[in-house]
Known about the structure:
four-stranded antiparallel β-sheet, binds flavin-adenine dinucleotide, 3 domains, five-stranded antiparallel β-sheet, Enolase-like, domain 1, alpha+beta
Amino acid sequence: MDVLHSQVFFPSGFQELFSAWGRFPDAVPFSGGTCLIRSSGFSGRGLFELPVLPKNILSLDRIDELKRITRTERYLEIGAMVSLNDIIALGKSIPEALSKTLNGIAGPQVRNLATVGGNICSIGRPFGGIDIAAPLTALDARYELRTASQSRWISALRFSSFGSSALAPQELLTRIRIPLEHWNYTICRKFHARDLGDETSGVMVFITKNEKNLLTDIRIVFAGSCLLRDKNSETFLEGRKLPLDRKDAVHYREMWRDYLSGMTKPGPLLKTKLLNCIESCLLGLAD
Ligand SMILES: Cc1cc2nc3c(=O)[nH]c(=O)nc-3n(C[C@H](O)[C@H](O)[C@H](O)COP(=O)(O)OP(=O)(O)OC[C@H]3O[C@@H](n4cnc5c(N)ncnc54)[C@H](O)[C@@H]3O)c2cc1C
């Protein structure tokens, strides 16, 4: 018979994990622990404060499948338990937008512990991550989510727009699939020193693709207190000649101004910074 005190489970496979989760529905997945430990509070004993963790924990550390990285011609698949630094170490195999963003998250010690799954799933939680949502949304990444009985795929855009509620009860993020495409121009900008919960911070990713001198794809994504991607404006510049005509660049910036004005978040200061940043990125493409 199950006892009622705190439990830490170390399942070595999904069957074991979901069986424990079924018996302890309040159990919380634990990957790197960097967000969980900070957001769980401390026991309040001065210098020797101990983190107070959730009552029941499901450590994902022994599930090898979650640590796998595979690559095909079209995709890179990364298991949810791969650390941020191990992804950076893949070097040129990963899109520049992802490596630049990951390098901007915390310091190397935290990045050794923090996992990609933990970063994605801590969105919307106190002290949670958010930065990675910008490149993954811009790159059209998809996430595999699993329960005891089924698995489903969800786009990064949809997942991050829902925040932590994107996961159903007892649902696990298992892997991330990133299309491998060549992006010719990549700019990543981090606004404000990251102070979690601060509405003036976030990351913007600007990527474009071209064939010879024709612009074939342009994506701008902001992840902060909200997730922004204006799919309507993306088609406006497609097929334009490079260097970009200044009038087109200005028109595109104005489309983003209209899009932002309809959004309640981020605040006016960050909206202005975003527009300035978009303008300077566009100028890099103009004559
Ligand atoms: C000092 C410091 C600085 C930081 N700076 C930044 C920054 O600049 N930018 C930024 O974006 N973030 C920043 N963070 C946040 C950091 O990125 C996250 O804490 C980290 O990525 C979470 O990963 P983890 O593996 O430690 O997750 P954990 O703490 O283990 O888990 C986080 C949450 O996700 C859930 N979870 C974990 N894995 C899964 C899974 N596979 N499926 C379902 N649910 C899961 C857990 O139950 C928990 O609710 C910072 C954190 C610290 C401590």
